[in-house]
Every structure is written in structure tokens, then in C-alpha cells.
Amino acid sequence: LAEARAAHGKTSSSSGRGRRAHALGDGRLSLVLFGTGVQAWEHARTFADCFPIGRVTVVGRSLSKAEALAERVTGELGLKASALAAGKDSPALERVLSEADIVLTCTSSTDPLFSGDLVKEGCVVVAMGSHDPSARELDDALLSRAEVFVESRKSAVAEAGEIIQALESDAIVSQYSLTTLAEAVFYGRRSFDRPAVFKTTGMPWQDLALAAACLSD
Fold it and tell me: Taking the CA atoms of the chain, what radius of gyration do you get in angstroms?
């Protein structure tokens, strides 16, 4: 059970590392979480441990599942949380997105979840749900104005639908305009005057580190 939990936490820890590399200012942060499954919960738990989260909005295709996860966030993490049904034409969702400091997408969606024009400058968006060239959680409107971070350029242009499709449409000019996570850790963000997107696909070294940690226990 401990190893299973560690495996689920690996991705959320990587996402948290990405968010730290894109660090925002201090203060209580507003987090919007797309998804209601295991990874959504692990991301909520990890980000609550690592950052000063003030409130969480859980967004799901099933409102009842979103409400259940919001209740768990409040009950187990002690955070103010609410739920919304997914839908691009929802005024309530548009409002929380426009105010969000962090947006996490942990879904199996093959189409963009929201309009990237809603995301404010300086917001950090972490997308981890899609790992197929034909699938994406984020649209070109966001990727064209964001500083985009990836674990590896080679992996991103082979697996990440957001990156592949944005390169095809010229929303991202070149793979060399992508910033790797290692570069972000060493050099930081280039600008806080636009959103930051971290597109994670998972890397073999993360699995190796997890295996080593489990064996050492």
C-alpha cells in the first residue's frame, strides 16, 4: 500500500517541483483543480503540503464526484473547497479561472478544458492528464502567451499533445522555446508578466528514484 501511494504521489511531486520552479509571490493562493480521480486527490494533497493554498475549486464532469473530492479536501486537508461542474460556458468557472493563481489539470480529456484567455498573467498551470499526441487539456490561446516548461524537449515533442499540436499551429514557435524543468530550477522563470505552463509527461528517472526510495525502506 505504501508503494502504491508513493507511485501515485510521484506525478504530483513532479508537478509540485514544477510549480516551485515557477514560483509565484507569497500569500494565500487560489487553486483550481480539474479532475476527480486519484491523481487529482494526490495533487491536492501535495500542493496543500508544499504551498500556502487559501482555497480550492474542484471541477469535474460529474458534479457529485467534484463535490465529494471538495469535501475530502476540506475534511482531510483543512482547506476551504468548493465544486463546479465542467463546462466552457459556465460563468462561475470563468470567474474562478480568472482569479486562479494555480490551475491543475488531472483529467483524461482529449479536448481543451477551458479557454486560455481566462488565465491571468503570472498564473501557473500544470497539465499532467494527457499523454497522447492527439489529446490535450490546454488550448493554443494559453500556450501562445505562456512561458512553457517541460521535463524534456524530446519527450514533450513525442508524447505531449498540447506541445505537438501547438507546434503544428505555430502557437509555440519552436521546441527550443520550451524551457526544461532543469533549466527552470537553475535559472528560474524568464517573465512573471505572462502565465507559466508546466506540461508533464513523466520520465524514467522519476520511476527510478521512486523504486530506490521504496527499496531503501
Answer: 16
pLDDT tens sequence across 113-171? 999 999 999 999 999 988 899 999 999 999 999 999 999 999 999 999 999 999 999 99
Q: Which amino acid, 35?
A: G
pLDDT in tens, 184-210: 888 877 778 999 999 998 754 455 454
* Beta partners for residue 83, in sequence order: 58
d(CA 78, CA 94): 25
pTM: predicted TM-score of the whole model, two decimal places = 0.83
Listing DSSP states for 79-125 in one string gives -EEEEEE--TT-HHHHHHHHH-SEEEE----SS-SS-GGGSPTT-EE
Q: What is the crossing angle of helices 2-21 and 204-216, to 10°? A: 130
Which grid cell sits at 63? 458534479
CA–CA gap between residue 17 and residue 182 (Å, rounded): 10
The three-state secondary structure class of 43 is helix
**Eight-state DSSP code of residue 132:** S
The grid coordinates listed for 90 are 459556465
CA distances, 175 to each of 12, 44, 73, 113, 136 (Å): 24, 30, 37, 23, 17
Alpha-carbon 113 to chain mean position: 12
Name, in order, each residue with C-beta under 8 angstroms of 208's C-beta and a sequence gap of 6 or more.
Answer: none
